[in-house]
């Protein structure tokens, strides 16, 4: 005699189907919660960054910050105007380790005025700064980046202090670096 719900095989099939559906629902719920929590952590981990000084070190710091993916807003200040930055005639020599580091950040030495000698790259500081500024300006469309050349940090000091009270991280690159 068979029961109203069918035989034992039909009951086992329904039980197996219910178990599979329950497991699938639990896994999907877990994945949705995990992804949401990870996005929230990533969003909360983002910080505002202020860099004072647009020399080679300051611009490299800005590029590292932007490429980290942790920057909500980046502000770069330098009291020199762009023309004063880019006409610097001093030479810079980048050793192989620095070149590898900068290549990983997206610096394209093949499209930069300069020369190679024994795995070292030689160029003018102004050319190097112009290249890094162009990379940062390309990132402006994806992230909030403000490049304020011709702006003394002391004129922005009240805003800097107010922001520092929050979640601002300050990186200093002294003029002439």
UniProtKB/TrEMBL annotation:
Record keywords: Membrane, Transmembrane, Transmembrane helix
One family name in Pfam for this protein: FAD_binding_3
Family annotation (InterPro entries): FAD-bd, FAD/NAD-bd_sf
Residues covered by the FAD-binding domain: 47-108
GO MF, one annotated term: FAD binding
Segments crossing the lipid bilayer: 15-33, 45-66
Gene3D superfamilies: FAD/NAD(P)-binding domain (3.50.50.60)
Name by which UniProt lists this protein: Transmembrane protein 175
Organism of derivation: Platysternon megacephalum (big-headed turtle)
């Amino acid at each position: 005699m068979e029961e109203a719900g069918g035989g034992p095989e039909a009951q086992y099939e329904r039980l197996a189907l219910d178990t599979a559906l329950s497991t699938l629902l639990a896994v999907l719920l877990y994945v949705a919660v995990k992804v949401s929590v990870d996005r929230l952590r990533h969003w909360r981990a983002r910080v505002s960054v202020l860099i004072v000084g647009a020399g080679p070190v300051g611009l490299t710091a800005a590029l590292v910050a932007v490429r980290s993916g942790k920057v909500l807003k980046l502000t770069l200040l330098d009291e020199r105007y762009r023309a004063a930055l880019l006409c610097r005639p001093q030479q810079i020599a980048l050793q192989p380790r620095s070149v590898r580091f900068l290549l990983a950040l997206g610096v394209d030495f093949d499209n930069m005025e300069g020369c190679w000698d024994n795995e070292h790259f030689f160029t003018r500081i102004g050319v190097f700064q112009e290249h890094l500024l162009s990379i940062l300006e390309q990132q402006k469309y994806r992230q909030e980046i403000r490049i304020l050349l011709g702006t003394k940090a002391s004129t922005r000091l009240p805003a800097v202090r107010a922001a520092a009270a929050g979640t601002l991280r300050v990186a200093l690159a002294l003029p002439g670096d």
